[in-house]
Amino acid sequence: MNRGVELAEKLAVPRGGSILLAVLDGLGDVNAPGQGTPLEEAETPNLDALTRDGALGQLIPVAVGVTPGSGPAHMALFGYDPVENLIGRGVLEVLGIGFPLCRGDLAARINFCTLDDDGIITDRRAGRISTEKCAELTAVLDTITIPGVEVMVRPVKEHRACVVFRGAGLADGLGDTDPGAVGLAPLPVEAPSPECRRSAEVVGEFLRQALALLRPQPRANGLLLRGIAANREYGSFGSRFRLNPAAVAVYPMYRGLASLLGMSLAQPAPENLQDQIGAVHDARARGCDFVFLHHKPTDSSGEDGDRERKKAALEEFDTALPEILKAGFDVVAVTGDHSTPCAMKMHSWHPVPLLVHGGFQRTGWNSAFSERQAASGSLGTMNSMDLMPLLLASAGRLEKFGA
After folding, report:
1. Which CATH number fits the domain that encloses residue 135?
2. In the predicted model, is pLDDT for residue 381 greater than 70?
3. Alpha helices in 142-272 (DSSP H)
4. Of 124, 127, 168, 368, which one is least surrounded by beta carbons within 10 A?
5. What total of structural domains would you count in the chain?
6. What CATH number has the domain bearing residue 279?
7. How far is CA 288 from the centre of its chain?
């Protein structure tokens, strides 16, 4: 456990200022020769104005050189050790759609994909099929039966779905079947230990039946499993830091993560950024003093290698920022969970820009919100786990340590 987080838990008080943590997923990027990053080139006058009155720095999500998944990257932002509290993505996806997981259930995220005649992946997202098509396909897969195990398949969004296996003898430890790139075959399901043998048999049989059912499909004729994990309990975020927290996210996985940590969720689930603005105001009206706001398009555009769309996603958030801030927060943090460089089309290990406004900060060091300026900001470079103590202190929610 991080020493600063341990102290923050002991020193936290249930009073002080309110906090907004806005996470622009996949925010960080790298510049090409003769180009700036999407963040440097985007028109972000409102973020730049906050920067001039606030402080910049950069976050290392897990460790130097380590490329994080979305789950561990967010856990670190919330002050949880991402290594000790590694959560399978499947659990997060399932909780995010409000599915009632039981302790010991085995859950996995499904990515519908496109396979060629040789079983090689040509599109890991099946052309980003519609959510309606996803629901149609999951209804077919939900008919799969495996002796001794209940199999439940549910749609999530676009090409994403999830599956839950419920039965005796299921254990953690299976790896993903997604190789993470096109031009390769899906990875086999293998048991790394005797405890996982039953899980490997069940998941392998599910895949065999699923591929037979999907074979006639023109695009979504295959599937990849990610984050295969058993459900367990985690400590409450609100109890740890004496906060009344809420989460405002469109994508189910992030709603699932927030739910797992005891944050209240915006109801009904927001469908777009405009809905999210209303949900932020509603959370403040309900007395929530910590709001986690998640903005996904910066990540999905980076994964697609689309610089212009990533710039547009940043500008969309910047345009919405004044209305968000009208909810009245004492401390505002804007950062990312990880970097998703357009040139790489995937998550990366690069530090993520951080902006903190409110409280007593060393201001005036920077004039614009960007990777370049964040690297020279007054907050310096810190681990993502250090963010919560910093925000609590800025909001006046930590007592003095010692005499």
Report:
1. 3.30.70
2. yes
3. 197-214, 237-241, 252-260
4. 168
5. 2
6. 3.40.720.10
7. 21
Half-sphere exposure in the Cβ direction for 374 (13 Å, CA): 27
309: tokens are 């769309």
Report DSSP letters for 29-51, one per residue: --PPTT---HHHHS--HHHHHHH
Alpha-carbon distances of 349 from 46, 75, 83, 264, 352, rounded to whole Å: 27, 16, 15, 30, 9
165: left (phi over 0), alpha (psi -120 to 50) or beta: beta
Q: What is the C-alpha to C-alpha distance for residues 338 and 347, in angstroms, rounded to an integer?
A: 7
With H, G, I as helix, E, B as strand and everything else as coil, classify residue 155: strand
Q: Which amino acid is at 243?
A: L
Confidence bin at 267 (pLDDT 50/70/90):
confident
Q: Per-residue pLDDT tens for 66-110?
A: 999 998 999 999 999 999 888 877 888 888 888 888 888 999 999
Sign of the Cα pseudo-torsion (61, 62, 65, 67, in order): negative
Joined tokens for residue 68: 């994080």
Work out the number of other CB atoms within 10 angstroms of the CB of residue 145. 10
**C-alpha to C-alpha distance for 41 and 291, rounded to whole angstroms:** 28
Residue type, 129: I
Residue 402 lies in a domain: no
Instruction: Taking the CA atoms of 169, 175, 177 and 178 in sequence, report the sign of the dihedral they define.
Output: positive
212 Cβ partners below 8 Å, 6+ apart? none
Identity (one letter) of the amino acid at 326? K
Q: Are residues 106 and 226 in the same domain?
A: yes
Greatest CA separation found in the chain? 72
Give the domain extent around 96: 92-230
CA dist 108 and 300 (Å) reads 20
